[in-house]
Records
---
Amino acid sequence: MEFNYDKENVIVCQLHKPYNFLQFEFLKFGTEREHLKEYTENDKKQRISEILELKQQGLSNVKIAKKFGVSEGAIRKWLKAEENKN
């Protein structure tokens, strides 16, 4: 039997430790979209505001990136986009 898993068909599990071994317990099938956070325009503005504040405080792009869980390149790109707006 062959199973195809893609963005529209993902396995949803939870960690379970009934005895001495940790294992995955199947819950259901779902879609990727159900598990990804969707950012609103307000969320994006808030994030940029926080990044600008941290940059003004003297934090490096690398440290800001770690705080937000993104790459240093993403921070650089967002800061450059803000510079181009002004």
---
Amino acid sequence: MRDMEIARSVLEEGVWSLVIVKDGLVLFRSEEHGVAPFFEAVRSMDNSLHNAAVADRIVGSAVAMLCLHAGIASVYAAVASRPALDLLQQRGVLVTSRDVVPHISNRDGTGSCPFELLARNAGSPAHLYSALEAMFGGPE
């Protein structure tokens, strides 16, 4: 739980949109928004994220599935979609959120976030990871 408290505290400083903590150390933080920074963290740190804590400004189904893929132990979201919360809870991930919304909207608010749709169609965390890898480019 200490890792989650650290991650949430760093996130709430207001500068960062994503913070990952493990064993009391901040492993990753980003000011960038969206799924890309978390995907890059998962891709670059791979197994070292197992049992880490994530604090993110927005957690939708795509981020939730990436958390499952990486073996994240706990997640804090400033805003989370109901499907993302349900998925994480069903898989035994400790998750809390300040605000819960029915779905994550796209940037202009006219529909669902494209990553939410991608996650819904992926079917599994591994398939989503592969789809994101194809979208953002293969391993570095």
---
Amino acid sequence: MSDKKSKTRERIIQAAQAALIQHGPADPSVSQVMGAAGLTVGGFYAHFDSKDELMLEAFRQLLDERRALLAEVDPSLDGVGRRALVSAFYLSRKHRDAEVHACPLPNALGEMQRLPAAFREVLAEHIELMTAQMVDSPEEADAALADLALMIGGLALARALGTGELSDRILRAAKSAVI
């Protein structure tokens, strides 16, 4: 792939990621994504075979970024310390209100059953890998899964409510319940 084509493909993926974070993988149209990338719809098929292929790639990359961020957490912390630190960021107003570099799961989960199975496979792999990063031993895996579910659900509820006192309370309550 030429350098220009590679850069254009990356612009499209970045636009798809922003749309995925804000609306989930099913909602944005190809024309919306291409417009956000500053491109015309006509060029889409030079890079992707379908909208699902694009959104799956954007979803996979966003989840990879989330795990890369978790890998940067202080390695001297134990699993409980890592989960506490992660929840402090994940369940923050800044993350709730972020339009880029945010977790796509709160807006994507409701659509998973309507999407191709590949989306659920990527999600399952992500959950397994995230859980492994959040524990020191296999015995902690269920606690990490529960914390992860609480964080994602708490963020989803807080985002659904927008900014405001109830949304802030949900973030605080979920954060205090982790671990």
---
Amino acid sequence: MTAEERQILQDMIDDIYIQFVHAVAEGRHMNESEVLELADGRILTGRQAKELGLVDELGNFQDAVDLVAKMAGIEGKPRVVEYGRKTFFEQFFGVFARELGHGIAETFLETGRQPVGLSSSFL
């Protein structure tokens, strides 16, 4: 990369960073100086981010879906439709395989047990 190309890239990164700081400050009702103290590239846990006022709640994907459904006034269990690339397994077996996998995971999460031979990262 030439010095000129490097400067163009750095200018773009700096501009994106400024936009990010501004968006966080506006969205979290913080001063930009407060955001600048935090936006230094460090990694935060969810709990740390909540304590710093960067997130409202902690939870998983389903918690987020349930909250959005409640906010939107959706009654009953919301249905999530995913668009995009499917794995070979999903293409071959279709939606049935994905729903079966979710059902198995939910069963084990509800009972607090883990299926034999499956790591928690699978669920």
